[in-house]
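Lecture 7, part 2: worked example. A protein chain together with zinc ion.
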Amino acid sequence: MTANEQALANSKAADLSKLTGADQYAFSADVEEWFQVGAFENTLAREKWSSLESRVERQTRSVLQLLDTLSVKGTFFCLGWVAERTPSLIKEIVAAGHELACHGTDHRRLFTLEKAAIKHDIMGAKKLLEDISGTQVLGYRAPSFSLTPEVWWVYELLREAGFAYSSSLYPVKTDHYGMEKAPRGPFYPLGSGILEIPMTVCDTPFGRAPASGGGYFRLLPYSVSKRLLKKGAAQASSPGIFYMHPWEMDLGQPYVAEAPLLSRFRHYQGQAGLPRKLRYLASDFKFVPIKDIYCTLFTQSNNGAGE
Ligand SMILES: [Zn+2]
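Predicted complex, written out as structure tokens:
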């Protein structure tokens, strides 16, 4: 059995008949600094991070303002690193009516860490976010969708830590991330009680395409992104999920000229058009936080918590 097959062997599909409002889509944002991205990991070393200009507060506020004008509520997966330095931002996110969720401590990919370090990374961030916000954090998203079959036991850890769900898998293969064999609809890995809600993908005549946003949403024409998201959700018979990063629409952020050309393209391309595309998106889809769609499928003591 391959690691992939082993990981999926004990998985159980979620019963989506329990969902209310299945026509809704989930909006999510991963809150991290502009320099904490995979595209710059070989150019901007972690040791340099504290000397770089922090822009996450103003960037996230721009997103909060835009979502407010669009009447969109979403789920904000925040880094512990950000919460520690800008606790007021975490409170603002919650005060604006969004769901607060956890993106780990400092954006290290899970499969690069030892078990104790992963535990520290995830539990530390959850506790910090909960202490600052006074709300229970139910959701987790692994940095760069790095919850791979090699570290599948992380789902047990998430249960122990009191999470109800994870949104850490992208059932597509890209050069940066992805687990093509992962189920496309929500499922319970390892019978752990944690609901995994994978990102949306779309099968096209040209192959499987990521359909949840991120860099692709900036690169592709809006009409194509809209079609992929809608069709991908229909193919998986489950609500589509969209994600973005606050740094993606900050035209004033520093330009990292020494990064490789492809990395710069990935990071900067299409930033100016993002607010316009988000406006279109909000008029075409009904977006809500992840927990609003899925709370009836949460199990154990977390059922209904945070409501
Ligand atoms: Zn991230």
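The pocket of zinc ion is lined by residues 30, 32, 103, 107, 143 (CB under 6 Å). The mean pLDDT is 93. Keep this in mind for problem set question 3.
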